[in-house]
Amino acid sequence: MNDQRFSIAHKEAWIGVGIAIIHFLWWFGFAYGLGRGKVEDYTYILGLPAWFFYSCIIGFIVIVFLVFIAVKFFFKEVPFGNEESGGQ
Prior knowledge:
The protein is mainly alpha-helical and 88 residues long. It has 2 helices and 2 strands, in the order H-E-E-H. A two-stranded antiparallel ribbon has the order 1-2. A hairpin with a 2-residue loop joins strand 1 and strand 2 (48-49).
């Protein structure tokens, strides 16, 4: 268990969990924060209720951007093969 790959995988898994939690909080906050009023009082953006637009459309774009940033700057290339057998 002294393999460096496990510590990298552990760190990257926690980054993934953090992004998933951020996504859930974003979605929940906008969906239930803006969507709890009467339907007659809703505001609409591009024909969609504002709560749906911010929670699902903008939330998706923000999370895709966060995943891109995480993969680009925090994730590392790790060989999956066994180092003793020449990486196969």
